Inverse folding.
């Protein structure tokens, strides 16, 4: 008996094959369509069960399908296969539709997708994931039926065009991911967000050539927002989401970031040159920046990039920074010449418990900063964990910073020092760390 025959006999007589059809189809629904078809060879009973799965997950260039010609040789083969799927499910619901179309050419696929999305909408689609390749010469337009789906829960669109519409109603949509999407009307994106009354998760990678001059995020239900604007200098961002728990913004040289209402977010991750437009003598821009930092001051965990950390330090030189009274976790990237400013920032974080600090040197100075500031109160009352990471040549600066926290942190439980030290320096670093007097008798030092 061949190995394949043995596997087939095991599957035919195994516990899985004894399950009812609807449970096996549910198991197959977690696989791509290609893998579900491949699984059909494991058992004679499974041979046609993949056709009953209430979902289609296909890549137009995915070769090796376990039937017929074993591949899509042309786009026509792909279209015929998808058409047959919808015909086979013409009287049943479809839970998931994921299509990655990557054929290069000047063909307009909008007519195909309009037919398929219309069919999926009438069959009460719940998850729609459509990814069009960047090499398309003709942009794919999304049909109007998508805007009024009564059952759609998850929507992900990549490199398509959202046409203008007056009516948007997505009563069940909870997750919306848009990547490099183009809008024929600036209000289309705003309508998608505001007309989704249970939306919780929003992710946008902005397309530099779209028509939206500002991203308007206004929702009473959003819990997670992830915005990537790349280098759109003329664009703005407005966020009004009172239930927001997580906010991540990547917006280099953006025109304006305005956060109206975010409740009490658990985590904010900022990578933006928010001060690139700030004129110290411009009271309007100063007020805008003051409002921005005040709006994120209630966060419990803050992650900042090198550019954002620089902007914060710049602002602190102009006027006092608002207190981060709820902040317990802080992760920053800081230049070695700005250690004094870092301590001034820590003074605005009275409840800080965990600090992750990455030290860098971008040729701004050859001299490391000298720490002369008074000890921030969080080092005495709350700081428990410190992680130091250096990308420097040598280990002197990192050891000086480690020494500062070991000698001044009353409640410190663990200090981690991470760097790619040369082998000959590792033992020296360990001995130096071991010899440093510690303010906390329970502190453990870890060298990675």
């Amino acid at each position: 008996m061949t190995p394949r025959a043995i596997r087939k006999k095991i599957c035919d007589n195994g516990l899985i094959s004894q399950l009812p059809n609807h449970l096996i189809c549910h198991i197959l629904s977690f696989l791509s369509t290609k893998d579900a078809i491949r699984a059909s060879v494991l058992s004679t009973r499974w041979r046609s069960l993949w056709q009953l799965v209430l979902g289609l997950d296909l890549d137009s260039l995915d070769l090796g399908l376990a039937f017929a010609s074993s591949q899509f040789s042309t786009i026509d083969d792909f279209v015929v296969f998808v058409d047959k799927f919808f015909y086979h499910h013409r009287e049943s619901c479809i839970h998931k539709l994921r299509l990655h179309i990557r054929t290069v050419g000047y063909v307009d696929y909008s007519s195909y997708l309009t037919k398929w999305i219309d069919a999926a909408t009438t069959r009460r689609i719940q998850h729609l994931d459509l990814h069009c390749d960047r090499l398309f010469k003709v942009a794919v337009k999304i049909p109007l039926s998508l805007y009024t789906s009564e059952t759609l829960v998850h929507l992900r669109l990549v490199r398509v065009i959202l046409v203008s519409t007056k009516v948007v109603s997505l009563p069940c949509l909870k997750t919306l991911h848009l990547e490099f999407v183009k809008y024929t009307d600036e209000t289309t994106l705003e309508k998608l967000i505001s007309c989704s009354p249970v939306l919780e998760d929003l992710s946008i990678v902005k397309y530099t050539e779209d028509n939206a001059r500002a991203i308007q995020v206004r929702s009473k239900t959003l819990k997670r927002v992830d915005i990537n604007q790349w280098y759109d200098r003329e664009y703005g961002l407005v966020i009004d989401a009172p239930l927001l728990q997580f906010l991540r913004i990547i917006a280099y040289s953006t025109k304006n970031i305005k956060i109206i209402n975010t409740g009490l977010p658990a985590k904010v991750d900022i990578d933006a040159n928010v001060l690139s437009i700030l004129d110290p003598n411009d009271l309007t821009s100063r007020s805008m920046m003051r409002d921005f930092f005040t709006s994120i001051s209630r966060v419990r965990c803050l992650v900042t990039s090198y550019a954002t950390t620089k902007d914060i330090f710049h602002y602190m030189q102009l006027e006092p920074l608002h207190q981060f009274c709820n902040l317990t976790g802080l992760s920053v990237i800081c230049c070695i010449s700005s250690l004094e400013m870092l301590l001034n920032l820590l003074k605005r974080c009275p409840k800080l418990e965990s600090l992750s600090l990455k030290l860098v040197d971008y040729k701004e100075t050859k001299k490391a900063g000298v720490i002369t500031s008074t000890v921030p109160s969080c080092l005495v009352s709350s700081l428990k964990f410190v992680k130091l990471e250096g990308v420097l040549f040598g280990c002197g600066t990192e050891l000086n910073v480690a020494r500062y926290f070991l000698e001044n942190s009353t409640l410190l439980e663990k200090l981690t020092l991470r760097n790619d030290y040369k082998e000959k320096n590792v033992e020296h670093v360990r001995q130096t760390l071991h010899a440093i007097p510690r303010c906390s008798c329970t502190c453990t030092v870890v060298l990675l």
User: Anything to note?
Assistant: Residues 312 and 346 are 12 Å apart (CA to CA).
